[in-house]
Amino acid sequence: MTSVTTGRSKAIADKLWFVRRLDLFEGLSEGEMTRLATLMHDRECRTGEDVVVRPKGDRIYLVKKGRVSVLDRGVNAAVLGPGQIFGTSAFFGTESKQQRVVALEDAVICDAPAAQFLGAMAAHPRLAARMMTLLARQIFELERAVERTATEPVSQRLADLLLRMAKRDGVVPEIRALAEADLARMIGASRESVSRLVAAWERDGILRAGQRRIEIVDEGRLTQMARPPGPAGSPDDQA
Running DSSP on this structure, what letter comes out for residue 227? Predict the structure, then answer.
């Protein structure tokens, strides 16, 4: 056996292990899972890098390692981690022109032909039911993101975004590779309002900001900021 063949066998075995551990594919035969694993293509993405800018409508994507942010028309719609799926517009044969996916940390993404997933769904009603539940949840999350942009103050939206995007593998949670302008676009606010809030929270000892990096120093107080405000509004809550 050549080293190339050995390498391919190890790669397929690694993908098969990933497929087996996902509840989404429970009930598929070993042969069906092996076929899916064979069709999967791994890609590595660095922190802050676009994963899929505009899906073509013929592939489905699974997060194998790391976390990504899914943006719809520039607004953060979801933060996805290992085992979660995106690019589901492919199931309807359409191209998601307004979707952007950004790696929040170093990530590995698997992609595979949507037609193969559709075939497996046709043969396994339980898989189809799980996928429909997933799609319904994603639609709900998108509607919630749009609603929050229209009804919640900027401070609450920003605090919630920072908490959800924070990487927690160090001494303090931190958000990497995103500028204040990026954060502003993701919550549908102006860069100036985000800059004012970050500066104020840094003075108050809640955050510590650097170039394309924010550390959450006081997560408890930031969590309070992410909750619905009382009757009095904040002067920085104008987008």
Answer: S
C-alpha distances (whole Å) from 30 to each of 14, 26, 61 are 14, 10, 21
Pick the more confident residue, 191 or 149: 191
> Do the Cβ atoms of 153 and 163 come closer than 8 Å?
no
Residue listed under structure tokens 């489905």? 60
Spatial separation of the C-alpha atoms in residues 76 and 146, rounded to whole Å: 9
Report the 10 Å Cβ neighbour count for 6.
10
d(CA 222, CA 220): 5
Contact 88, 60 (CB under 8 A): yes
- Cα–Cα nearest to 121, from 56, 34, 28, 18: 28
Q: What is the pLDDT of residues 128-184, one digit of tens each?
A: 888 888 778 877 877 777 777 778 999 999 999 999 888 888 889 999 888 898 889
User: Of 26-35, 47-56, 115-124, 198-207, which gets the smallest average pLDDT?
Assistant: 47-56
In the numeric block, the tokens 């979707």 are attached to 99
Token readout for 87 is 């690019």
Residue found by looking up tokens 């930031």 in the block: 222
User: Residue 116 and residue 214: Cα distance in Å, rounded?
Assistant: 41
pTM of this structure:
0.68
Q: Which of these, 113, 106, 103, 105, lies nearest to 71 by C-alpha position?
A: 103
Phi/psi of residue 125, nearest 5 degrees: -55, -35
Longest C-alpha distance within the chain, in Å? Answer: 71
Tokens of residue 15, six digits: 């993908």
Measured CA to CA, the distance from residue 60 to residue 40 in angstroms comes to 10
